[in-house]
Amino acid sequence: MSEKPSVRTITEQARDIKVCREADVVVVGGGPGGIGSAIAAARTGADTVLIERYGHLGGMATGGLINILPNLSDISGKQHIYGLNQEIIDRMEKRDAAFYPRKKDWGTADKELVDFYNDTGLNLFYVRKDPNMGGKERVMYTAVVDPEVLKDELNDMVQEAGVDLWLHSWGTRPIMEGNTVKGVYFESKSGRQAILGKVVIDSTGDGDIFVEAGAEFDGELNNKYRTAWMASTFWMTDVNIKKADDFKASQPEKFAELMQELLKLGGYPHYLKGILGNQRNVLWYHSFQIQPEASDGKDVRELTRVDVRGRKRAVTTYEFMKKNIPGFENCYIMQTAPQLGIQGGRRVIGEYILDDKDMVSDEVHEDTIVVLANNDNGEISARHPSICIPYRCLVPKEVDGLLVACRAFSSTDSVNMYFNIIPPCIAYGQAAGTAAALAIDAGVQPRKVDYKALHKNLVKQGVNLPDTK
Ligand SMILES: Cc1cc2nc3c(=O)[nH]c(=O)nc-3n(C[C@H](O)[C@H](O)[C@H](O)COP(=O)(O)OP(=O)(O)OC[C@H]3O[C@@H](n4cnc5c(N)ncnc54)[C@H](O)[C@@H]3O)c2cc1C
Predict the structure, then answer these.
(1) DSSP 8-state class, residue 354
(2) pLDDT digits over 301-339, tens only?
(3) Mean of pLDDT over the chain
(4) Same domain, 244 and 257
């Protein structure tokens, strides 16, 4: 039956909504940006509420099965991102739930190590060609974490910080007074309720709150960038990877032919080898779907189609591999990601828009909140290994009472794709949460926060920032 789009509208009746909580800071979304925001705000002394639509924290890093924290160092092996990112990795390591190259190997061109990472298929994250060394491949500091342990660790961290956590709560609209956000409405099994806050941080990834607050945003997406592709991720286990590797090495043409056949059937042939200590027989499938049109993943009908197609694709892959590829005889799908993989979308127009010129700039902004390894996999990162991100990228141009700390930070599409990944989002959150608490303390709007105080506070938290004097 073909779908007939309806043009009818109805008017929702006005009703009183229960205010269930009044807080200093309300963070909406508990992904990398949200956990950074909430932990930092609470640690800086703000009464902080975190609302998350799913039953766990971590966003794509857990529920999306995207457990890779890349580009913690630049191409030479020099670490740039510290702060909360490093703290999370340290805590995960203590629980034997993190893997990364030993510190002495960051930046190494040692062939055995380079080959190891290339073989896993994770080379995109661990190995980079250095034009300064004639294109030689070098190993980067990238960490991989166990998503199930991470969910538990993040619960511990937010609770230790004193964050008031509300799971299963879907933030719907900001509460506005003029152009100032005063809280959020959210839906849950307890019905529609409101939480008032002095500063709201939109960490939904998709900009759900700032769009409704009337903030200007850029929705441009281009299919040539990964940010326009959606994905449904799954993990396959009980694979005899050595046997599969031997088959591929001994019969490369046959293997390639079978993978072509799998593609034609609608399956997904590309996998990464799990390198966590407890996952030696697990494969990670980041099953990308390149849409005919670039998509910001906000159309629920499209999300439905992508999910249905992704599930079919996972099972088609499983059935085909099991039947045809030596080593996959006993395999099964260990888990499919509950969170659909949205890589990019609406980005707030902030007081500063990060764009192509920043990729080749060594400017130290007076409001620098994080230094990130440049990430273009080529000439630019060799000449400009790192870049400084200004706080103004998190501050909407016109709306007050609001910060944006997630992949929807203020940036052009062409640059967003390099810096919207997990570690930067945690760092944006750490800065936003700190700034929100400082602004409330000083009785000013977040855009008026004292950059020097913010800098000092972030450095105290272990964030690596250049001297801005
Ligand atoms: C297939 C794929 C592969 C990727 N590979 C990597 C990689 O290897 N390494 C890497 O670092 N990055 C990778 N990324 C990118 C990275 O996962 C994201 O850019 C990053 O997770 C963004 O963090 P975030 O906090 O902005 O958003 P998300 O991780 O999407 O978190 C947003 C959170 O907000 C919640 N939420 C959303 N809307 C609402 C609402 N209205 N109310 C309440 N809660 C809400 C969500 O449930 C979620 O928990 C990949 C992405 C995809 C899709």
Answers:
(1) B
(2) 989 998 999 999 999 999 999 999 999 999 999 999 999
(3) 95
(4) yes
Both 367 and 273 in one domain: the answer is no
Query: Measured in angstroms, how far is the CA atom of residue 61 from the centroid of ligand 1?
Result: 7
Asked which of 342, 361, 388 is the last residue of a domain, the reply is: 342
pLDDT of residue 193: 98
| Ligand 1 centroid from CA 203, angstroms | 9
Report the pocket of ligand 1 as residue ranges, CB < 6 Å: 28-34, 51-54, 59-61, 64, 66, 68-70, 125, 170-171, 203-206, 208, 231, 233, 286, 341, 343, 406-407, 420-422, 425
pLDDT at 98: 97
Q: What is the pLDDT of residue 469?
A: 62
Per residue in 41-60, pLDDT tens? 999 999 999 999 999 999 99
Which ranges of the chain have pLDDT less than 50? Answer: 1
Q: Which atom of ligand 1 is nearest to the CA of 170?
A: 42
339 CA closest ligand 1 atom index: 47
Q: Has residue 117 been placed in a domain?
A: no
Integer Cα distance of 236 and 104 in angstroms: 32
Does residue 151 lie in a domain region? yes
Question: 367: Cβ–Cβ under 8 A, 6 or more apart, which residues?
Answer: 390, 391, 392, 451, 454, 455
Specify the CATH number for the domain of residue 59. Answer: 3.50.50.60
Examine residue 132 and state whether it is found in any structural domain, yes or no.
no
Contact between 456 and 435 (Cβ < 8 Å): no
Question: Cβ distance 268 to 259 under 8 Å?
Answer: no
Does residue 116 form part of some domain? Answer: no
State the closest ligand 1 atom to the C-alpha of 71, by its place in the atom list counted from 1.
11
CA 111, 112, 115, 116: dihedral to nearest 10 degrees?
Answer: -150
Structural domain containing residue 48: 17-95+145-227+343-469
